[in-house]
């Protein structure tokens, strides 16, 4: 290996560089999920949603309606300063037909010092966009509608993103 002294007329940008071996270039991180980038197959995703709905339906705990924090429970939705409960969002023209959706239990937020609701703050839902398959009838181009006339609707599904409340948070 031969060391060559650097020229004195280097640009300012070159002078600030680190010396030593160059780092390999890194790939840019993925910033957004697209429908083409399937992390898991759609069937696995739909099955996990169905499992969540089944757990919600088979839950032995009473329906959550009180604005209170329960530190004994392991579920984060009841330990939050903005607690929420899940209800089932049902739509027969989509797959999965049932999706758990969050509903805020408090208008305000739980004050961590008094453990009482403080209405100077507000609990608001957190929304996420989830991929679902919508029933699309051929011949109309309209989602979930049967074509006019005597033709039968041939079931065809289109993947779309749907906005669902997934939790609640506290704002001032």
UniProtKB/TrEMBL annotation:
Q: Where in the cell is it found?
A: Secreted
What Gene3D superfamilies has UniProt attached to this entry?
A: Cystine-knot cytokines (2.10.90.10)
Could you confirm whether the keyword Secreted appears in this record? yes
GO biological processes:
inflammatory response
Basic and acidic residues bias located where? 1-12
* Region of interest (Disordered), ranges: 1-29
Gene Ontology terms, cellular component aspect? extracellular space
What domain of life does the native source organism fall in? Answer: Eukaryota
Q: Indicate yes or no for the key word Signal.
A: yes
> Which keywords has UniProt assigned to this entry?
Cytokine, Secreted, Signal
Q: Which GO terms describe its molecular function?
A: cytokine activity
Q: Which Pfam families match?
A: IL17
- Principal location class: secreted
Q: Which family does it belong to?
A: Belongs to the IL-17 family.
Question: What's the protein called, per UniProt?
Answer: Interleukin-17B
Query: Which organism is the protein's source?
Result: Aythya fuligula
């Amino acid at each position: 290996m031969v060391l060559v002294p650097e020229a004195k007329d280097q640009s300012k940008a070159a002078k600030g560089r680190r010396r030593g071996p160059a780092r390999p270039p890194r790939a840019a991180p993925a910033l957004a999920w697209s429908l083409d980038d399937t992390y898991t197959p759609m069937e696995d995703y739909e099955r996990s949603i169905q499992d969540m709905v089944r757990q919600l339906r088979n839950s032995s705990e009473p329906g959550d309606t009180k604005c209170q924090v329960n530190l004994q429970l392991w579920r984060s939705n009841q330990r939050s300063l903005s607690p929420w409960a899940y209800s089932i969002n049902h739509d027969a023209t989509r797959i999965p037909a049932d999706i758990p959706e969050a509903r805020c239990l408090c208008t305000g937020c739980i004050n961590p010092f008094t453990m009482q609701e403080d209405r100077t703050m507000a609990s608001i839902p957190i929304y996420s966009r989830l991929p679902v398959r919508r029933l699309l009838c051929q011949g109309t181009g309209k989602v979930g509608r049967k074509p006019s006339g005597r033709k039968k609707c041939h079931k065809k599904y289109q993947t779309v993103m749907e906005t669902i409340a997934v939790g609640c948070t506290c704002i001032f």
